[in-house]
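Example 3.2
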Amino acid sequence: MSKFRQSVPAPEASEDAVKAALEEVERELSLLWCRARSVSHRLSPRVHPDMEPAAYGLLTIVRQEGSIRLTALASSIGISKSSVSRQIAFLESVGLVYKGADPRDGRAQSIGLTEKGEEKMHQVQDARRQVLFERLAEWPPEEVHKLDYYISKFNAVYGDSPTQDGTPEKTNCTPPLMPAGA
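Structure, written as tokens:
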């Protein structure tokens, strides 16, 4: 179980205090990302018993984007086209995705969810969202709004961070689909 600070420490402007706070942010983000990977490991068998967690992540992106080229899918998560291609071949073989001509360029292929893929992802992501709602149910609404605000603010800054050569980082990350009526 993670330690939880019951109160927000008074902000200190010293360089050491800022450095310590940033180290805590890094630690908490690492824990969050680790837990997110763990959730993917638990959820992937709900979509298909033989599906690898990496394929669950690909399905999530395909669901968010609608239809996406294989190269764009690979670059959005920073893995090789051959690795994505292998996962997509599996997902296509079990009927969760289809490959079709890209409407913007008929020479290229785009990948989309099949009806079965959409149904499975809808079920799993609804269950995932329900867990989140249950975990935050005890939080006062203003704290949930603050969490949303700060995560959104962090994501906006984090996505614009420069790479080692100084060029802007390119990410194709998009927010998950919201349920109807949200």
